Amino acid sequence: MSKAFLVAAVVACATGSAAAQTAVVGKAAPDFTLTDTNGKTHALSSYKGRHVVLEWVNFGCPFVAKHYGSANMQKLQTAYMDKGVVWLAINSSAEGKQGYYTPAEVNALLKEKASAPTAYLLDTDGKVGHLYGAKTTPHMYVIDPKGTLVYAGGIDDKPTTDVADVAGATNYVRAALDETLAGKPVTTAVSKPYGCSVKYATAAH
Amino acid sequence: MAARVLDRRLSLALVFVAAGAREAASGPLPPASASSQNVRAALLSETSAVSAGKPFWVGLRLEMQPGWHVYWKQPGDSGLPPRVRWSLPAGFAAEDLAFPYPQRFTEGTLATYGYTGDVLLMARIVPPASPPNGPVEISAAVSWLECREKCIPAKASLGLALPVAAAPVASREAPLFRATRDLLPARSDGWTFHATADRLVLRPPARWRAPAAAEFFGAQDNVIQFGAPQRVVKGTAGWGLELLRDPNGTVPATLNGVLVARRGARVEAIEIEARPRKEMR
To answer: Most buried among A67, A109, B105, B132, by the most CB within 10 A?
Structure first.
């Protein structure tokens, strides 16, 4: 790589900026529209009136593998979708970066893992990830029927890659959903998310 | 024939004694070092002999392949800190790991805190007042996350056997311990901070000399944005460092972390617990 190119690349990266995070717990969850792995578009606002879970995902990440390998995530998805919750898995991995898969590859992986979220959305340019301040995979958000963000953070309180830690952990998503489905305020509305970093696209490369 | 029978009984007796001395651990002592794909982990001791009532330092050394890093006690936006679970003989106690000041790895708006190259995480071991049975066996169940573009969890079981002596003896690794002490942040009192809607401003005690450059490594979750630029503010109130708040965070009771200040070639690493104050004008 020539020095001139390297300098130009560094400048481009430095001046390019991601959209600011506007998702704040207690405020309206910012609207977005993304396409799923079957070519269908989904607007968050179209789900007003229902509870929505956003799950940032990367099947190549050992923390995500902990929750999928143990079927923890799939059980959550099924249990709450059965209660009418909309479950949107979101992938903000840039093309060429870890965790990026083609729609066909994703569908095959979902089948293999027996995971069937409402939709698996592709956020390859990372716009929605930045809007929500998604830092890790997994990073979880819960939105109530009024469209208010009521939970943002980690899936549970055991930030490890050990499957053995799933059973004894306090699952913040389950707790938030149980409370908000019962019309109660969420006790733990914010926690530190844990996982691998989201593999965002960097500016103009 | 008789001699061989005697030897076997003696060796059984030694095993029995050794097992009694190492109550917490079971099985043979693990090796002193082990390697994952990208990191070599080693359990080191600053002393090559243990003495009754005299605390001594051991350490977990992590030597990383180029491009790979491990994390600080607060990893930042992602990652996991290295963890050690000690197995010690009865009467021995281990204090918390001491972390040298970290560096920041920024990727876009996200950042993590950690180390590249070679790092020694030290811990003080306090022996009992009465002379222990030797050899003193110390083992450690260690886990860490090593990352480059992707992250790989790693584990190792490490062990050391140290003889008992009247006084500690500097080991071959003692120079590494001495050099690492220079990298440990020193406690400093008198730091304060005030909060605005979207930032926290950190201020030093009165006589602190403003550095050429400074970086604050926040130790707490959901307080500051780990990846945000940090602006130095100067005015009638003197030097201050502006930290952008986590949008989902709250104002903490104290602002905790490590400040790394550079003055020429000299680095000052300070462990801070800043108290809140009203905004200064």
So the answer is: A67
Above pLDDT 90, what percent of chain A? Answer: 87
For residue A138, say if its preceding peptide bond is cis, omega within 30 degrees of 0: yes
The most distant pair of C-alpha atoms in chain A lies apart, rounded to whole Å, by 60
Closest CB to B107 among A23, A98, A197:
A197
User: Are A161 and B149 a contacting pair at CB < 8 A?
Assistant: no
pTM of the model: 0.88
Asked whether residue A4 carries a pLDDT value surpassing 60, the answer given is: no
Residue ranges in chain B modelled with pLDDT below 50: 1-24, 281
- Residues of B near A (CB-CB distance < 8 A)? 77-80, 107-110, 112, 145, 147, 149-153, 221-222, 247-249
Residues of chain A positioned with their CB less than 8 A from the CB of B80: 159-161, 194
| Chain-chain contact of B80 with A198 (C-beta, under 8 angstroms) | no
**Residue A146 is encoded by which pair of tokens?**
């009024």
Name the A residues in 92-131 with CB < 8 Å from any B CB: 97-98, 130
Between β-strands A196-197 and A136-137, what pairing exists: parallel, antiparallel or unpaired?
A: antiparallel
Quick one: pLDDT at residue A11?
42
Rounded-to-integer distance, Cα B220 and Cα A152, Å: 17
Per-residue model confidence as pLDDT tens digits over A133-190: 999 999 999 999 999 999 999 999 999 999 999 999 999 999 999 999 999 999 999 9
Taking the Cβ of residue A152 and every Cβ of chain B, the question of whether any pair is shorter than 8 Å is answered with: yes
